[in-house]
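Internal tracking record. Fields below are filled automatically when a chain is submitted to the structure queue. Please do not edit lines marked as system-generated. If the sequence contains nonstandard residues, flag them in the REMARKS field before resubmitting.
Queue: standard
Priority: normal
Entity type: single polypeptide chain
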Amino acid sequence: MKKVSWGILGTAQIAIKKVIPAMLKAEFCSIDAIASRRLSQAALIAAQFQIKKAYGSYEAMLLDSAIEAIYIPLPNHLHVEWILKSLAAGKHVLCEKPIGLNLSEATLMNEALKKYPDLRVMEAFMYKFHPQWGKVKSLIASGSIGTLVHVHIHFSYAQLDPNNIRNQKSMGGGSLMDVGCYGVSVARWLFEQEPVKVSGLSEYDPEMKTDRLTSGILQFNKGSATFTCGTQMERFQVVHVFGSKGKIEIKYPFNCLDQEATLILQQGSTIDRISFEPVNTYVLQADHFSKAIRTLEPLLIPVSDSLNNMRIIEQLRD
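SYSTEM-GENERATED OUTPUT FOLLOWS
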């Protein structure tokens, strides 16, 4: 299969440290251009990764007819704007989560996408591509823990720099948008339905005005999920899945990059450890999206799922 020609729209740290190195290892990706608002910055990163073309504006790269797909690592408030501009330029789009600032933005993007039936858009929830999650879902489906009753998610880290985009309210910063979106996503994914009721509680930084601690409760038709996320806490992540006859602990549910992953399955007094060889979820994500462009196979994360995730985030925030 011919590799997809990619352009990187921005030089954010996640692109430089995680996504570009991964895409260079991917089977179906060719990174052929990178853009920055400063040509010198784009040229610097292009030289670092031996990318053929560097552009001094995002618009210039979108005019490059050889580029088929765009990866967007920009701050949250720029996601929908540049998805729309990329679509108008005839490009497929892989965009970092969350898909937009709010449901209104995401809905606008979805309506625009309908005008481009040959183009694909996907939100970059890379955690879903780790094989441990396929195992978790199969354990639930097989009844290994009985009936799914409750899921609890924790995801936190410490980031106190007021200049960091995660602490900029106007850019869509705060813990709910940055890491709480994972909790919403995984709960909906495991229950395979939308919550019928949600409640949220947030504590805001008095200076930066972003939520530094948010907890949520998602009530489903049968069962519930709770999550806690924070940006001024000890770095930690875990997911616990509780069933009527057992439980599963996912020790590195989200940022399990190039390290062994372990699930702990408990059924009564029996405890099993299920290990997975190291994989790079960013590589798997890039290849999945590239193959979907070529083969039109279904996306693991369709835009409809992104809209529903944003809908719940907005309800929690309200």
